[in-house]
Task: structure prediction
Amino acid sequence: MQAIKITLVEPNQTIYDLALQHYGTVAGIVDILSYNPDLKNDKLALSTLGIDTVKDNDFYFDAPVEIGFPLKINKDSKYGIPTITREFNAPITTYNI
Result:
């Protein structure tokens, strides 16, 4: 049985940030998408980028994820690098409006 951890997405975190923070590598995106099929971008950030959130339902990897989204993380993932993720004590955010 896989150990699933729930964490809330912080402001301005992209899927790349989340993968690095929780898996230690962007390869963790595979698990994030697999365990979170309803993952969405932050609508305000998309609007700021000029994306019509009514007509466009695509997921943008380089735009922030919805703030407060309850993200499921597979702690037993083959994509994780535990020695790296233990070093992160704060959320990783690379997106800047």
Observations:
- The longest strand covers residues 4-8.
